[in-house]
Amino acid sequence: MNTNSPAKINKRQQLNYKKLFRDLVEKAGIAILIDDKAGNFKYINKKYAEFFGYSPSEMKKLTIREVVHPDDVDMVMRYHEGRINGKRVPSGL
User: Mean pLDDT in the chain?
Assistant: First the structure.
């Protein structure tokens, strides 16, 4: 039996890429997050959490609305929705 079938190689490569990606994101010198449409944090790298003074697990319990200044929440959520819909929006305040 051939243990190097395309499916096995593909699965092995996917696992390798997943590990490489996670290492890259975790060791990045910039803040990186993944959130959903409602602004709930799904993934936060250590740098992002440090920026706000939380651990990644604490940050996962928060939302965009809870970390953005109240005066800026509506604008940030409009930008967020625009990005989700593929529109070009400013990336910083």
Answer: 86
Which pair of structure tokens corresponds to residue 54?
Answer: 């939380």
For the CA atoms of 72, 74, 75, 78, the dihedral, rounded to the nearest 10 degrees, stands at 150
The number of distinct structural domains making up the chain is 2
Domain that holds residue 10: 1-29
Q: Which of 8-12, 17-21, 26-30, 77-81 comes out lowest in average pLDDT? A: 8-12
Query: Is there a single domain that holds both residue 85 and residue 74?
Result: yes
- 24 and 38: one domain? no
Per-residue pLDDT of 18-38, as tens digits, reads 888 888 888 888 988 889 999
pLDDT at 42 over 70: yes
Q: Which of 92, 86, 80 is nearest to 37 (CA)?
A: 80
Q: How far is CA 12 from CA 22, 24, 42, 62, 66, in A?
A: 16, 18, 25, 34, 39
Amino acid at 31: A
